[in-house]
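Input record, target 12 of the design panel.
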């Protein structure tokens, strides 16, 4: 999906940063700086080490083109939208800035963390073009790259010993380094370092959830927006180490062979993480590579920190899409052919054992979802599978985070996105990532209309979402000059803004299903 620009484009924007001068460009009234290094290249002896500040440069650095993305294989969304990364390299620790003005405007800043299961993605994807959001809200938008896969999240004790205690979490350290750059430099771009909102989708939102529990991240952002991700995708130490040891076996290396890791071609690392992915799904819960509770950078599970009265609670806006898991049905053809027996087998694999009353957890979940949909469409075994997995992986963790945060922070807001994709004959429904083009306003770009549709309703919903996100970044309240009345979330009513063909507040949507997961967790 190539970047399309119309109207004014000029290369006349310069900024003097702490590392040197940058030359950006003006695009339709917004100044853009791409490929700004926020850390030195993590290559050679710096591979698998924490980020360090960038080396200063002489002269004027060209900031009109994005830098390379982190090494990776193509992801689902890239294939669906034809918007894969153009170039990848280990020298990837850079960010992009869109600003309405290089002045003392002290504008709110929105810092985007991209998704991609911690394996794919880039802050430079056209899907995350920040121009429209910056223009509509008079805000500064920042997108960034961070290390992915094993390069960013390998919880190998030998590496932790070398670096003084941090186990894995290099991707989190990258994100923190970028946020520190924003704190120190964003005023030069017309932004307010005291008004930073970090927002992200999928693994980006999971990163935000993890950062909420990182002491070193305190003060680097004031508010957080989590789209289809929460704070549950965090390995404990043992699971993180097991994942790392499995990876080392695929590499043909001993667990302590740090020199071998640094000497290996990057292609070998990517192929090894790809091969060990299926095996790890039976070894550790959650994603193969993700943040780890290491007792150092991330001292405990983020939800435990947020429930602690001594931990600072921030305003958050969080939500999910109704049919998240249907996106993954693209690569799981058997899911659309499930019968009742196959559905039960799948649920038994994911939810083994019995609940507190001695009842099969899998059977209870299927029966609850079936009864909740009585008299409605969506009760076939495939429909139930997608609904169960959408809630298990995304909706319940998000509502759990909202509930915990709301007990200590009144500015907590929940949404439920229901707009349906017309792609693949409507098979995707309101799938994972469909809200992203609405947030960035790129609904007319490239192949995006085939994913989200066209027409006044699409434009109206995009404007409502952008206004809400911008209002939240300004005030901590998305209904303030946003889509109208949006009550805060709290456990008694669970007020949720439904965003779809119609926008309205619903109290405790899908409460039967939410309560089921809460009960199974106890």
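The sequence produced for target 12 reads:
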């Amino acid at each position: 999906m190539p970047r399309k620009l119309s109207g004014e484009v000029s290369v006349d924007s310069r900024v003097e940063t702490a590392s040197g001068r940058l030359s950006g460009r003006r695009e339709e009234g917004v100044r853009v700086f791409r490929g700004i290094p926020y850390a030195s290249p993590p290559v050679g002896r710096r591979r698998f080490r924490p980020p360090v500040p960038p080396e200063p440069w002489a002269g004027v650095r060209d900031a009109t083109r994005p830098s390379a993305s982190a090494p990776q294989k193509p992801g689902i969304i890239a294939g669906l939208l034809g918007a894969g990364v153009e170039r990848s390299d280990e020298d990837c620790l850079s960010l992009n800035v869109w600003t309405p003005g290089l002045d003392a405007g002290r504008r709110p800043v929105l810092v985007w963390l991209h998704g991609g299961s911690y394996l794919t993605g880039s802050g430079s994807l056209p899907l995350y073009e920040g121009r429209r959001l910056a223009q509509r809200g008079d805000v500064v938008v920042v997108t960034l790259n961070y290390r992915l896969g094993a390069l960013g999240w390998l919880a190998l004790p030998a590496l932790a010993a070398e670096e003084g205690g941090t186990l894995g979490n290099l991707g989190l350290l990258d994100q923190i380094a970028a946020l520190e750059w924003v704190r120190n430099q964003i005023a030069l771009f017309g932004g307010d370092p005291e008004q930073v909102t970090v927002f992200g989708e999928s693994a980006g939102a999971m990163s935000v959830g993890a950062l909420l529990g990182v002491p070193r991240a305190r003060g680097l952002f004031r508010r957080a927006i989590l789209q289809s991700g929460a704070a549950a995708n965090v390995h404990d130490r043992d699971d993180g180490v097991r994942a790392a040891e499995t990876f080392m076996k695929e590499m043909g290396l001993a667990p302590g062979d740090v020199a071998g890791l640094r000497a290996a071609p990057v292609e070998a690392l990517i192929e090894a993480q790809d091969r060990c992915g299926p095996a790890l799904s039976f070894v550790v819960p959650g994603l193969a590579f993700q943040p780890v509770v290491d007792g150092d950078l991330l001292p405990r599970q983020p939800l435990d920190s947020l429930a602690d009265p001594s931990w600072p609670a921030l305003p958050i806006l969080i939500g999910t899409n109704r049919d998240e898991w249907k996106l993954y049905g693209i690569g799981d053809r058997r899911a659309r052919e499930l019968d009742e027996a196959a559905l039960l087998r799948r649920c038994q694999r994911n939810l083994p054992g019995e609940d507190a009353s001695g009842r099969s957890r899998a059977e209870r979940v299927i029966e609850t979802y079936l009864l909740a949909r009585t008299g409605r469409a969506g009760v076939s075994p495939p429909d139930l599978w997608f609904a169960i997995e959408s809630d298990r992986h995304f909706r319940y963790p998000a509502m759990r985070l909202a509930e915990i945060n709301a007990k200590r922070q009144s500015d907590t807001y929940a949404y439920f996105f229901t707009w349906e994709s017309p792609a693949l004959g409507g098979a995707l429904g309101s799938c994972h990532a469909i809200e992203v083009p609405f947030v960035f306003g790129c609904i007319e770009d490239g192949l995006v209309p085939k994913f989200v549709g066209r027409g006044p309703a699409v434009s109206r919903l995009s404007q409502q979402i952008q206004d809400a996100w911008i209002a939240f970044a300004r005030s901590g309240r998305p209904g303030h000059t946003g889509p109208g009345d949006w009550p805060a979330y709290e456990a008694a009513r669970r007020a949720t803004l439904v965003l779809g063909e119609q926008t309205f507040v619903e109290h405790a949507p899908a409460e039967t299903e939410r309560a089921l997961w809460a009960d199974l967790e106890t």
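Confidence is low (pLDDT under 50) at residues 1-7.
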